[in-house]
Amino acid sequence: MADSCSMASPTLPEVPAGPDHDPDEVPRRRVAVIATLVAVAVLLTGWVYVLFVYDPGLMIDELADRSFPTQAEQVCAAAKAELEQLPRAEVAQSADERADVVARSNLVLSQMLADLGPLTPTGSPVANEAVSEWLDDWATYLGNRESYVENLQVDDDARFLESTKGSDTRGITRAINAFAQVNRMESCTTPADLS
């Protein structure tokens, strides 16, 4: 009998298994891409709105009529220039000298307030009230400075005490300076001569 020859089936080399294909992977990718595109579209729409459409109107305390701020800035700039000619109170050698310097600067500020008073807007009750309140705050601050001069004359270690405004404990200068800055009257902020 003839030798039986068995033929073995050829062995194929093992192919490494590929990554498992999750049938849900394609829809998840599609959702992620769509969500990203929607987010980008929303952001772009927001920026276009802010840059080209949105009108913020007036900020709190900002005056619609620019005549008072323009005139006030001129008055305050002149007073500021005068104050800069005076020696700074912080470098005074004695309490009496400091009191004298602060008293001189108070005269300049008092004249500034006298010059600002007639500029108060009369056409708008809201503007009139806002400016009047601001000038009242200035008058209070000036009163604090005058009290400081009096205290220096009797106490070499007297400290400047500033009135507060509102329900918090913040000094009145914060309200004065905020109104001046919102209305672009930089020269009308309180001087830093007592620091």
Report on the architecture of this protein.
The protein is mostly helical. The protein has a domain of 122 residues. The chain is 57% helix and 0% strand. The chain contains 5 helices and no strands. The radius of gyration is 37 Å and the shape is elongated. About 3% of the residues have low confidence.
Q: Secondary structure elements and their pairing?
A:
Elements: H1 25-53, H2 67-85, H3 95-116, H4 125-154, H5 172-182
Notable traits:
single chain, 195 residues, 5 helices, elongated
Q: Helical segment tally? A: 5
* Low-pLDDT regions: 54-58
Number of strands: 0
Output the radius of gyration: 37 Å
Please outline the major beta sheet. none
Shape: elongated
Kindly state the percentage of residues in helix: 55-70%
Structural class call reads mainly alpha
Q: What is the typical, i.e. mean, pLDDT?
A: 83
Strand content: under 5%
Series of H and E elements: HHHHH
What is the CA-CA span between the terminal residues? Answer: 122 Å
Summarize the structure.
The chain has 195 residues and is mostly helical. The chain is 57% helix and 0% strand. It has a domain at 67-188.
